[in-house]
Design a protein that fits this description.
The structure is a single chain. This protein has 27 helices and 18 strands. It is an alpha/beta fold. A hairpin with a 3-residue loop joins β12 and β13. The longest helix has 29 residues. It is globular and about 85 Å long.
């Protein structure tokens, strides 16, 4: 990855073998930016954050201090998210051993308002730095001027050019389709400017400008009105908003056929962001472009979507050096393809099947290269927004911090792949039309195993910090409570339940969440994992049984229970799954600490090496964020360590479907 010049200002300070320990004051989180982390790693440095005294001391003593005592050389960077003066608060033994550095945004952007640029995602600093170098402000800009500078040069928004409906729609579609994360301070400023010109008085700007889900819901409920207009003709009487029972105020009709708008609408329907609707005059519309958003004949609809999605996927596979958000976004598109591909009603094969397998092979190759290069930078990313499972409790904790009355629930669906979430979400939408899903995703821990990834999610820490329980999930309840006690809750305010599968199991949850003191609950729904481990009919069989289970209503009832009692509900998974083929079973006897179908784990390098000799394409996964003696051997490609004649649905490896999992906030639409 070509380093931006702002990174060069920082990376030039990291010369190997200058000091075995470097202490960095980093109040603005610059060292946690993905490109910086990669650059530091390429120079041979290891980074450890100083966020928690106890956790830091454990990692420091177990992984580095002992190595120094043995005379080994290391280049260790300890990062303190505080100003330079606060470095002196670090333990005396660190200060004695290390050199001190400090970096901050004010030094990189001296003529821009610090509060404004501090709100930016660190991945946006490239565009900001280039703009600063190009425009060269000759004097410090105030808050208002900096807001305008950033909107224009980082996000490509010139508010004065938004003069009519199509301009506003083009901006909102570009922003929300691409998932641009514009800070609240800039959104508020932009809305203020749009309100001043008086052109959008009836538009719900405060909701649809910052909120992706609200904007697409706004579009969804206006699509039928547009279809009515198309079917009736331009001279027909326009219906008022109230005639359609719309949740959002504003114009009843949107010019979806405007050339700047239509280019997005096709993709939004293909990717399932907008849902196709039935129309009583569909026969008048089927020869028009609007067929993309019409329900006609299920098989034809499915094939039309699948063909369009495959084409979109082929054109958008992230390239080497891509930002991690690029893969998270792409994974949702690929999940939609898989949901159609594995639909039990699908019967066609032949050329379309060959094309899909070819595209999947390209995705596997690209993602394997990327994840092997970049996984080491992910666990140290800032937890907002969450990037990995151990970040998720921090997301919930912020809700608790915002209000003394807030309550949060984490529903962990063990083994739920992103494409299976697509199936579940479709069923939930039919069962509970009032539900709204704020869809995101995170990277599971590798190896993608329950004991590693699920436990990290409930502990709020990387697996490195629970070496004694990494082969079991029995300590999850205590780890969950410990996290929340550290966040200021009492033990009585924290609850945990697991083995939730069917409706009778919900009585335990009801008893838990009915307690007036409980404010943070962790719930493990493991039905999908049970289905997976008994599956002999491949991914299509998985989708069929997951859909049948969702239709039974236990999950919808669980969500009702939590929402009725005022909980903010977040749903995630610890890993996904794939259909595999057997590559043979290692004959290592009892030497493996864990014998999974997609992964074997050893505590000795030579033992792992011996098995690797028999399976030369298997991957020796480094213990990134793991205990040093947790040595995983991953089965190659889409294979499993089983008999060549077997083809289980399994997990543990590094395909996109196993690694990227859903993170969904579930709420009810406002009435």
């Amino acid at each position: 990855m070509a380093m931006g010049s702002w990174r060069d200002e920082i990376l030039k300070e990291f010369t190997p073998q200058v000091a075995r320990l470097t202490l960095v004051a980093d109040p603005d989180g610059l060292l946690l930016e993905e490109g910086i982390l990669k650059g530091i790693e390429e120079r041979g440095f290891e980074l450890i954050p100083f966020d928690d005294h106890v956790a830091f001391r454990f990692a420091y003593e177990s992984r580095y201090r002992s190595r120094w005592d043995r005379g080994e050389l290391t280049d260790l960077v300890v990062v303190l998210r505080a100003a330079a003066l606060d470095l002196r608060s670090l333990p005396y033994d660190l200060l004695q051993a290390g050199r001190l550095l400090s970096f901050n945004l004010g030094e990189l952007f001296p003529n821009l308002s610090y509060p404004i640029i501090d709100a930016l995602d660190r991945s946006d600093l490239d565009d900001l730095y280039y703009a600063q170098e190009r425009e060269k402000p000759d004097r410090p800009l105030g808050d208002r001027q900096t807001r305008g500078f950033v909107l224009r040069h980082v996000f490509g928004v010139a508010p004065e050019t938004i003069r009519q409906e199509s301009d506003l729609m083009r901006f909102l579609l570009r922003r929300h389709y691409r998932g641009l994360r514009i800070p609240q301070v800039l959104d508020s400023y932009l809305i203020q400017l749009l309100r001043q010109n008086g052109l959008f008085g009836e538009w719900p700007l405060e909701r649809i400008v910052p909120d992706r889900e609200a904007f697409f819901a706004f579009l969804q409920e206006r699509w039928p009105a547009f279809l009515d207009r198309q079917a009736a003709g331009a001279d027909a009487v326009r219906e008022p908003v109230g005639a359609y029972g719309m949740e959002f105020p504003g114009p009843a009709e949107i010019s979806f056929d405007h050339h700047d708008i239509r280019v997005y609408i096709d993709n939004l329907f293909l990717e399932g962001v907008l849902q196709q609707v039935s129309h009583p005059q569909a026969d008048k519309l089927v020869d028009s472009w609007v067929i993309v958003g019409l329900k006609t004949e299920p098989k034809a609809d499915r094939n039309r979507r699948l063909d369009g999605l495959v084409q979109a996927v082929e054109q958008s596979i992230p390239r080497e050096g891509a930002h991690h958000q690029d893969w998270l976004t792409f994974a949702h598109r690929w999940a939609q393809v898989n949901a159609l591909w594995f639909d039990p009603q699908r019967q066609e094969g032949g050329e379309r099947e060959d094309q899909l397998r070819s595209v999947r092979a390209r995705i596997d190759e690209a993602f394997t290269i990327w994840i092997r290069q970049r996984f080491g930078t992910l666990h140290n990313q800032p937890p907002s927004p969450p990037v990995m499972p151990h970040h998720v409790p921090r997301l919930l904790a912020r809700r608790i911090e915002e209000s003394r009355s807030a309550k949060v629930a984490l529903v962990l669906m063990d083994g739920l792949a992103l494409d299976q979430w697509v199936v579940v979400q479709q069923v939930l939408s039919d069962q509970r039309p009032a539900l709204r899903f704020r869809e995101g995703s995170i990277f599971a821990w590798i190896p993608t195993l329950t004991m590693v990834s699920r436990q990290a999610c409930f502990a709020g820490r990387p697996p490195l910090y629970f070496p004694s329980s990494i082969h079991t999930t029995e300590r999850e309840p205590s780890a969950w409570r410990r996290f929340w006690v550290d966040e200021g809750l009492s033990s009585a305010e924290v609850g945990y339940e697991k083995n939730l599968r069917d409706e009778p199991d919900l009585a335990r949850v009801d008893e838990l969440v009915s307690h007036p003191k409980v404010r943070a609950v962790g719930l493990v729904v493991d039905k999908v994992d049970i289905i997976m481990h008994g599956m002999t009919l491949g991914s299509s069989g998985m989708h069929n049984l997951v859909r049948q289970w969702a239709h039974q209503g236990a999950l919808a009832a669980l969500l009702d229970m939590l929402l009725d009692r005022g909980f903010a509900v977040f749903l995630t998974a610890d890993h996904g799954n794939i259909e595999t083929g057997g590559c043979g079973r290692p004959a290592e006897g009892s030497v493996a600490d864990l014998r999974g179908e997609r992964v074997r784990v050893y505590s000795d390098q030579s033992l792992r090496g011996r098995v690797k000799e028999r399976f030369p394409d298997a991957i020796e996964w480094p213990p990134i964020g793991l205990p040093g003696d947790y040595l995983a051997l991953l089965a190659p490609d889409r294979q499993a360590f089983v008999r060549e004649t077997d083809s289980p649905v399994a997990h543990g490896g590094i395909t996109l479907e196993e690694v990227v999992v859903p993170l969904i906030e579930i709420e009810r639409k406002s009435s």
